[in-house]
Write a structure and sequence with these properties.
Layout: E1 4-5, E2 23-29, H1 35-50, E3 57-60, E4 67-75, H2 82-86, E5 90-98, E6 100-101, E7 113-114, H3 122-129, E8 134-138, E9 147-148, E10 151-152, H4 153-167, E11 182-196, E12 219-227, H5 233-243, E13 248-258, E14 261-262, H6 269-275
Length: 282
């Protein structure tokens, strides 16, 4: 018997034994939530719902805090499927701003370098996309969970970021050369839109920083990406900027598919909480 895949409006019984192969919940991860935030919230509610303190809850495929979309949450014996689920191809819609970089190649860190825009256009971007199709080597951003001589790359990145802030100099990405290259495969790249990013509300204070890029006039593209496990979309943004003789960073990211799970079928956190309402024991 396969694991139960939760759907909107579904009602779960109060006994985890009714789901011998576990439960998979495709969650539409909220903006500015870490994947750990999602697991923490669901695990707390699931323990109360099923009345089982040692209940296992995990996820298949981390999403960065500033990304939204499909995050597969596994409950009970379904946690054994996490590695398999994580190995499936994924699809994203990536928002990319050109003409600048940040140390993290997303909006968690301030812009540190501005670049020329002479060769940045819809036509030039369309022309280079084909160069990123197929199997290739990719270097992860320094702000990542990769290891350098047993040390997490993000630990080196944080030290360099603090040093650059003290000195007022640009962030030094050269330590990326120490990261091992990952073989990835990008099977589809589609330019959905090119222009200036739509105006948005100034980001509010919170534990996850989001820089305000409104008013900067940076060219923006929305690109649909279909790729294999381990592909860093922040690295793809970086490399596209370099291919155009400029810089680039992610300004938005949404995972629209993970294997056979589409974002249209994913549950918002309110939907998940409705699944896991505590049921009184008879």
């Amino acid at each position: 018997m396969a694991a139960l895949v939760a759907e909107k409006g579904m009602i779960l019984s109060g006994s985890i034994e009714d789901y011998p192969e576990g439960i998979i919940i495709p969650v539409d991860k909220p903006y500015r939530w870490t994947s750990a935030d999602v697991i923490r919230k669901i695990k707390y509610s699931a323990i109360r719902h099923f009345g089982k303190k040692n209940l296992k809850v995990g996820h298949a495929g981390t999403l960065d805090p500033l990304a939204t979309g499909v995050l597969l949450v596994c409950i009970g014996k379904a946690t054994k499927l996490a590695s398999e689920l994580q190995s499936h191809d994924k699809e994203y819609v990536a928002g990319i701003s050109f003409g600048a970089t940040t140390p993290s190649y997303d909006r968690e860190k301030d812009i540190d370098v501005r670049y020329p825009l002479d060769n940045v256009s819809k036509e030039s971007l369309s022309a280079v996309l084909s160069e990123f199709l197929g199997e290739q080597e990719q270097v992860a951003p320094l702000f990542s969970a990769k290891s350098v001589d047993g040390v997490r790359a993000y630990e080196l990145a944080r030290k360099e970021w603090k040093a650059s802030r003290r000195s007022g100099e640009a962030f030094d990405h050269s330590a990326e050369d120490l990261l091992s290259r990952q073989i990835i495969n990008i099977s589809e790249l589609e330019l959905l839109n090119f222009g200036e990013k739509q105006s948005e509300d100034c980001p509010k204070a919170g534990k996850i920083n989001v820089i305000d890029i409104s008013g900067l006039g940076l060219p923006h593209a929305d690109i649909r990406v279909k790729c294999t496990k381990g592909t860093y979309i922040r690295a793809l943004a970086r490399d596209l900027g370099e291919a155009l003789g400029s810089g680039a960073f992610l300004d938005d990211l949404r995972r629209t598919r993970n294997g056979g799970f589409n974002v249209e079928d994913a549950l918002g956190m309110d939907d998940v909480m409705n699944l896991l309402i505590s049921i009184p024991k008879e």
